[in-house]
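Standup notes
- DV: blocked on the single-chain target, sequence here:
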Amino acid sequence: MLKEFQEFISKGNVMDLAVGVIIGAAFSKIVTSLVDDIIMPIVGAIFGGLDFNNYFFGLSSAVNAPTLDAAKGQGAVLAYGSFITVALNFLIMAFIIFLMVKAVNDLRRRLETEKPAAPAAPPPADVALLTEIRDLLAKR
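- DV (later): unblocked, structure below
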């Protein structure tokens, strides 16, 4: 499944892109809430109990605020916690889209294999005649 996911993410198919945009827009708020309200607090607790969005490096000595919003007011900051949250959002969204496309592809494959087989072509006349002679001889 991981290999198929890698092929999906690197493929430039227009249909996959359209599905990604539509599904991404539809699930964006759900995934953002999942990451911000459920996953990141657990990750934050593992890494010291802080709000993961407030992980940042001040790029000047004037930045000494405890929160990201306050630090941005003091100067330039490298907000790596916010970046990790957004990257995790992207990976979850991409995986959800991958699962949906995988389900559609599986359904297409099943429908293609369930098509009735074309009726067999009738045998040539000489083969039909030989079969008829064989059947008559078998009856005697």
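- Follow-up: The chain is about 70% helix and 5% strand.
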